[in-house]
Amino acid sequence: xxxxxxxxxxxxxxxxxxxxxxxxxxxxxxxxxxxxxxxxxxxxxxxxxxxxxxxxxxxxxxxxxxxxxxxxxxxxxxxxxxxxxxxxxxxxxxxxxxxxxxxxxxxxxxxxxxxxxxxxxxxxxxxxxxxxxxxxxxxxxxxxxxxxxxxxxxxxxxxxxxxxxxxxxxxxxxxxxxxxxxxxxxxxxxxxxxxxxxxxxxxxxxxxxxxxxxxxxxxxxxxxxxxxxxxxxxxxxxxxxxxxxxxxxxxxxxxxxxxxxxxxxxxxxxxxxxxxxxxxxxxxxxxxxxxxxxx
Amino acid sequence: xxxxxxxxxxxxxxxxxxxxxxxxxxxxxxxxxxxxxxxxxxxxxxxxxxxxxxxxxxxxxxxxxxxxxxxxxxxxxxxxxxxxxxxxxxxxxxxxxxxxxxxxxxxxxxxxxxxxxxxxxxxxxxxxxxxxxxxxxxxxxxxxxxxxxxxxxxxxxxxxxxxxxxxxxxxxxxxxxxxxxxxxxxxxxxxxxxxxxxxxxxxxxxxxxxxxxxxxxxxxxxxxxxxxxxxxxxxxxxxxxxxxxxxxxxxxxxxxxxxxxxxxxxxxxxxxxxxxxxx
Lengths: 295, 279
Known about the structure:
The complex is a heterodimer of chains A (295) and B (279).
Chain A: H1 11-19, E1 22-33, E2 50-61, E3 65-69, H2 76-83, E4 91-96, E5 99-100, H3 105-111, E6 112-115, H4 127-137, H5 142-155, H6 172-185, E7 190-194, H7 202-219, E8 222-227, H8 230-236, E9 239-244, E10 247-252, H9 254-264, H10 273-281, H11 285-294
Helix pairs in contact in A: 4-5, 4-6, 5-6, 6-7, 9-10
Chain B: H1 8-29, H2 31-49, H3 51-54, H4 65-99, H5 102-106, H6 112-142, H7 151-178, H8 183-197, H9 212-217, H10 219-231, H11 237-272
Helix pairs in contact in B: 1-2, 1-6, 2-4, 2-6, 4-6, 4-7, 4-8, 4-10, 6-7, 7-8, 7-10, 7-11, 10-11
């Protein structure tokens, strides 16, 4: 991890990171899918419009780990995609360190990287080949990248002998660690983690969580984390928002959310974060997911 | 770790190499498929070239079998190169959809032109290497001999034609962006139409009149005419002009049009959420 202190980050990014206090600012953002299309045939059945993100606003401070909790299909991944310039908002604006994600997408992309629930790697290529490809896209010197790839993967618990093997021969957990390494290799100042530990074994989950915390503590990175794992969110996040049906229904520190729940219900002991989630959304995550699948 | 002192243009050019290296690595890992595809191309080319031997001879009108063999071989080889170049570019998006990596390439801090340039550079390299291997195998099988003097003009024509085919390839690459499930299959339809109208195995004059305008806008028509005249020994200065001018015009139109379409398709995909869907 110490080696990441030697990062050679572009001067304009360093200046921007130092001068802007809000790492991420989401202002009344909405995103819809489906609905009438200009390209549909007159005889085609009109597609139902789905509101994926509904008038969401949030501010994430520099150096903060901000969690977004919500069941499947309630807009977490859409929100991450809007921030990472992969989707265009239908309403509202998103700014990353003051750069608008639509008008200044090129600058935004230099500041962030993302890890999603799927590793999304070229399966036949080795971890080294996959990460070298990513490094070149982010203008990381190839010789330096080769050394860093071995080192970062080593810190994440991937042995050096596995680095040159095809990714398809790795376990799901190891593939996810390669995906995490891909994001870390480019030294993002805003790291978007979309359920990065879903499906990982407990040891791999701990490795990834420890690395993310170290990245924030030692390198001033800001992290936006979406998760299903209430324990993970409670442990890692400075602040949380619960996203329900595309809208943020509550926001605060884990302690604030629990205290508010205890106060409203006249409880002496603090509830778990899952209790808070159940209370606010009216059902548990498991129930919510089952309901969504039925829909 | 992000580089600091690089000019944007230098940074983008270096980043385009990422696509070349990645695709070379993928080709190495899929070597079994590459060998199978090579066998397919050689067998398909040979099947066409053997038609020359099968044409009945009329004693009153002697027929030059070796010239016709070369005519068909030039068609097969040139088409092999053009089709490979076209498909390498057109499949660049589809391949990423298949692997599920497209979002990561599209959110990298590079221009969309860099993405296109990288795919095109690999397409040219891949097309040249494959065609060279097919050429060696066909020369061995059919004892082909062409006009040595015509080699340089033929290569120049193929080079100029590559640029115009790049334009068509970029346009075709928009299809998998727009149509997540069947976009790649649509590019095969474009390839087949180009094969029909470009006179790959027969003169375009044999086509019905209504297809002639399509022949006129296909770069392969001019590449094939020029290469045949060069390698069959009928090459003149005016042939060069007649070939190069239309190719230059087609390139000037199709490359910017292809880039514009690709940028538009990327915007459309981001607006409608089509980047995340895997094919």
